Amino acid sequence: MSDNEIVHVPERDRYVIRVDGEDAGLTVAKEGDDGTVLFSHTEVKDEYEGQGLASKLVAGALDDVRANGKRIEVTCDYVKGFLEKHAEYQDLVA
C-alpha cells in the first residue's frame, strides 16, 4: 500500500499530495489579505489517476484550513464538486 502525505506549501500557494515521497498532485490554495483561502485549481498527475488522491488531497487541505480557523472561496470545479458531496465542509465556505 502506498504512503500518502498531504503537505501545505504556502510559499507556492498550494497543497501537495505525495505518494511514497513523490509529488502526485496539487490544489492551488492562495490566501487572501482577509484570511480567506481561494481554491482555484486541482490536478493529479496522469500516472496517479484513479486512486482517489484528489479527494484525499482536498479533504486534507480543507481540514488544515479548518484547523487554522480560516474560510474558503472556490473557483475550482473539482473542489466545488467535492463540497457538493461532502456537506461536512460547507461551513468553510465564506
Assign a percent range to the helix content: 25-40%
Largest sheet: 5 strands, mixed
Biggest sheet, spatial arrangement of strands:
1-2-3-4-5
What is the gyration radius calculated from CA atoms?
A: 13 Å
Average pLDDT value?
95
- Give the amount of beta strand, in percent: 35-45%
CATH topology-level name: Aminopeptidase
- Unreliable residue stretches: none
In CATH, the homologous superfamily goes by the name: Gcn5-related N-acetyltransferase (GNAT)
Highest CATH level, the class: Alpha Beta
> What's the helix count?
2
Number of domains: 1
The gross shape turns out to be globular
Topology record:
Layout: E1 4-9, E2 14-19, E3 22-31, E4 37-44, H1 53-67, E5 72-74, H2 77-85
Parallel strand pairs: 4-5
Antiparallel strand pairs: 1-2, 2-3, 3-4
Question: What structural keywords apply?
Answer:
94 residues, alpha+beta, Aminopeptidase, 5-stranded mixed sheet
What does this structure look like?
This protein has helices at 53-67, 77-85, and strands spanning 4-9, 14-19, 22-31, 37-44, 72-74. With 94 residues, the protein is of the alpha+beta class. The chain has a single domain (4-92), classed as Gcn5-related N-acetyltransferase (GNAT) (Aminopeptidase), CATH 3.40.630.30. A five-stranded mixed sheet has the order 1-2-3-4-5, covered by helices on one side. It is globular, with a radius of gyration of 13 Å. The chain starts with a strand and ends in a 9-residue tail after the last helix. The relative contact order is 0.19. The model has no long low-confidence stretch (mean pLDDT 95).
